[in-house]
């Protein structure tokens, strides 16, 4: 298995052809550091969650309105004052950085085996379409919540704090997910607990951590760290090491996200888009790479159980005027459907994963 980290360290001046993206994908591929500094143009909305704790119902309501608007217009936002201790977030980042700082041979001890369906562990993308396209990244992937479903034996032993801080972060994120799902439910005129229940509740909603490691790339204008896709999750929470790279496809253009200290990025995924009958958006996004700095991001996908729940627009949101925009599918069927569309259509025609 080729590790992108090894490729990057080999001193090559041009990247292997599998990593060169087709021409039609190479739009707005300028220098990501320059793009991040740009002052003009649309910007990912920021939602301050401090006001959710207010005694004043009116203050809480206006906070919910902002979250609702961001979910409707963008489907992605920067959460600030989210209540997760900054020291914990820093510890999570330091642990992930320490794991990826290990030599590749050490990380290989945690390698996954995608061919036998073992997706948890250290990995790199396998080509999933005829053109054999690859992404400029290696990753570490494993379940982090609920605790009783986690296989701690495959979590990194180095650094020694990895398990403790990652578990603690998972518990905090799970609570935050409930809060957000509650606010989004109210925003649809539903009971507060509705979306939470629809995606599996405390027992069944799975939090999957993917640490994306993007090595320095000699030809960043030709490669992508993550190809354009929408997340299949209900919600995705994302941290990064303050190196820019995330782009959102908004209003027909690729918008480079600004790095906001101590914030958490949050995506509304396909699952919530479907349940809300398209009221909340799952936005197309991709990850850029660069020549100067290693980029790392920590994505936590909050996923409904694979086959237990049939995802479809909630009946209260469907009417003659607003018919269901999505057919009923389980999470597995939804993923299959996306993969199938991708192999059927020419590369670049459909850029969702
Ligand atoms: O690295 C990023 O900023 C984006 C990663 C991403 O979109 C994903 O892992 O689904
Ligand atoms: Fe994503």
UniProtKB/TrEMBL annotation:
GO terms for molecular function: dioxygenase activity; L-ascorbic acid binding; metal ion binding. GO terms for biological process: flavonoid biosynthetic process; pigment biosynthetic process. Keywords: Dioxygenase, Flavonoid biosynthesis, Iron, Metal-binding, Oxidoreductase, Vitamin C. InterPro entries: DIOX_N, IPNS-like_FE2OG_OXY, IPNS-like_sf, Oxoglu/Fe-dep_dioxygenase_dom, Plant_2OG-oxidoreductases. SUPFAM superfamilies: Clavaminate synthase-like. Its cofactor is L-ascorbate. Belongs to the iron/ascorbate-dependent oxidoreductase family. This is Fe2OG dioxygenase domain-containing protein. It comes from Acacia crassicarpa.
